[in-house]
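This section describes the prediction task in plain terms. A model, or a person checking by hand, is given the sequence of a single protein chain and must write out its three-dimensional structure as a string of tokens. No templates, partner chains or ligands are provided. The sample shown here is typical of the held-out split.
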Amino acid sequence: MQLDNKIIAITGGAQGLGLAMAQHLGQQGAVLALLDRDVESLDQACHALSQAGIRARGFEVDVADETSVQAGFAGVEEAFGGLDGLINNAGILRDGLLVKARDGQVESMMSLEDWQRVMDVNLTGVFLCGREAASRMIRAGREGVIVNISSISRAGNLGQSNYSAAKAGVAALTVTWAGELARHGIRVGGVAPGFIETEMTTSMREDMLARITAGVPLKRLGQPEDIAASVAFIIENDYFTGRLIECDGGLRL
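The expected answer:
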């Protein structure tokens, strides 16, 4: 798919990786629909993109809410006349051990609330947005592409029962949807980032950040642009579907 004038929706598009994707794709001529809960960040992101000569519009959407997702994609279709691609990027963290104990005494457990909220946003949100985008592409007779953002944590990561389970689910959805939607001309791929230099990682303790960086074979954190380039590859390569790109500096050698 050539990106020029293609309408691409990005969930969690107002900041971080989502905004980096918008900038990268917009520079290649894509028209961006940014979906996010944070209206102020949406306004700032759209203004910054506009200043760079990129066409973008923000839509307030809670990806974990079915009604909000339906209204958001209806708004995208009304504003731009259709949809050519979706990047399921929105996600949250609520890290914690399943059970934290010392000397046989349980000090804390991962709460059901923290488990459910991560699943709602990181997995159910992908399902709701993917379903809505695919159904609208099919009704309009438009071929398209869906890119799901998973994580290397999908293989399991201490302190991330909820996040790892959700991202494993996202990887499984990617393969499943690729098989189901191919007949409609819709490709589905995924990107599994490693440790990327974002607001989240830069806020970590220096010693913890240094330990994480030392464990990466390339000895540095990835940049948001690295993930954006991986996403662009999937969108542009018309023979790529049903697979995930691991962009992690060699962590899963």
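For orientation: DSSP finds eight helices and nine strands in the chain.
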